[in-house]
Amino acid sequence: MKRSALFALFLASGLSTAVVAQQPPAPAAGPPRGAAPAGPSLPAPEPIERISGNVYKIFGGGGNTLVVVEDAGVTLVDTKLPGNGQAILAEVRKVTDKPITTIIATHSHPDHIGSTDFIRAQYPNVRIIMSEGTAAEMVANPQTNPALLPTETYKDRLTIGHGDERIELYHTGVGHTGGDTFVVVPSEKLLFMGDVMAWNMAPFLPAGGAAAIAEETERLVAAVEPLGIETVVEGHGHVNDWAGLQRLARFNRALVTEARAAYDRGDPPGAAVAELQKNPDFAPLLDTRIKKGLEYGNTPLARAHMNVNVAYAEFAGEQAGFGIANGAPLPLTDKHKGSDPKDTAPPTPEMLASSVAK
Ligand SMILES: [Zn+2]
Ligand SMILES: [Zn+2]
């Protein structure tokens, strides 16, 4: 697999170092100016596929890219790792020859904004929109390529376009990053999640925020519920649905609740995970298999252990969060070692061989 290449890219982009050093939340915003384009070993984007109506997806090559084709042009949500701009445009050309008019960034991580500069060079008037929090994280990172920076930002809520061509942006709190944006296409009852929902598992919390992400997810569900959302597209992985998002919201909340109870009892983090495992509703979020495309990381069960550890660190008033070292997540605190190390260990060859798509 391209595990080492992908990890190298995370390192090169500064995500890992920014997170491990726990600087003010400023994870990553692309390679330094003039850096060589990403190597050929990166996973290539998959062919474009229609999800619903005028909305398409291009998965792979980093985060998923959403493509919304409207009268005046094309809106892209997220632009994958650096080096994928040509491939994204080639896929879009299979369904329309309209210009790219808007790029929305769900957050500041390099696997979601990496090819914005390439597309901007082809379409110099393109609107580049992100939350104030995401823009602040990018500006705070001295490695940020200025061509990735926004032309517009918003605080909590933004509507782009009119009538059937409306696209709604929501920022409902701090979680995966300080600037997470959720994108709704109301005409298709479709919601794009960024990394707050990826691979149908608990979100990665590189800067901490186990309690915060429970609130963020609940606020999102409350905000978009009146829109009758049916299709929920994950930031990596798959097309999920409204029930899947509701389950994730319940899980994020239950994880904090069980972590608090176990912490107060003096039990190790694994005890909280054991409580979560008693609820059959949560079984998909506690899968013990590696998901395809996550070969550098964890199983859903390992992610749950990680997030309980994040919660414990927060309860103790410690620095909370995870970096990535040697291809595996590394807790920023070593005080709470209650989870069995194998629960958060790098994947074994056997696990990789048995990785599953869903
Ligand atoms: Zn991502
Ligand atoms: Zn991310």
What is the gist of this entry?
The protein is an alpha/beta fold.
CATH architecture: 4-Layer Sandwich
CATH topology group = Metallo-beta-lactamase, Chain A
Structural class: alpha/beta
Helical residue percent band: 25-40%
Structure summary, number of beta strands = 15
What is the rounded distance between the termini? 18 Å
Biggest sheet layout: 7 strands, mixed
Q: Could you name the CATH class?
A: Alpha Beta
The total of helices stands at 11
Helix and strand sequence? HHEEEEHEHHEHEEEEEHEEHHHEEH
CATH 4th-level superfamily = Ribonuclease Z/Hydroxyacylglutathione hydrolase-like
Shape: globular
| Tally of separate domains | 1
Strand content: 15-25%
Low-confidence stretches: 1-40
Q: What average pLDDT do the residues reach?
A: 84
Ligands and ions found: zinc ion
Rg (CA only): 19 Å
Q: Going across the biggest sheet, name each strand in turn.
A: 1-2-3-4-5-6-7
Question: Which keywords apply here?
Answer:
358 residues; alpha/beta; Metallo-beta-lactamase, Chain A; 7-stranded mixed sheet; 6-stranded mixed sheet; 11 helices; 15 strands; 16% strand; globular; disordered N terminus; binds zinc ion
Could you walk me through the main structural features you see in this protein, from its secondary elements to its overall organization?
- It is a single chain.
- The protein is α/β, with parallel strands linked by helices and 358 residues long.
- The chain has one domain (3-353): Ribonuclease Z/Hydroxyacylglutathione hydrolase-like (Metallo-beta-lactamase, Chain A, 4-Layer Sandwich), CATH 3.60.15.10.
- It contains eleven helices and 15 strands.
- The strands form three sheets. Strands 1-2-3-4-5-6-7 form a seven-stranded mixed beta sheet. A six-stranded mixed beta sheet has the order 8-9-10-11-12-13.
- A hairpin with a 6-residue loop joins strand 8 and strand 9 (167-170).
- The longest helix is centred in the C-terminal third of the chain and has 24 residues, at 242-265.
- Mean pLDDT is 84; it is low at 1-40.
- One zinc ion (ZN) binds at residues 63, 109, 111-112, 195, 235-236.
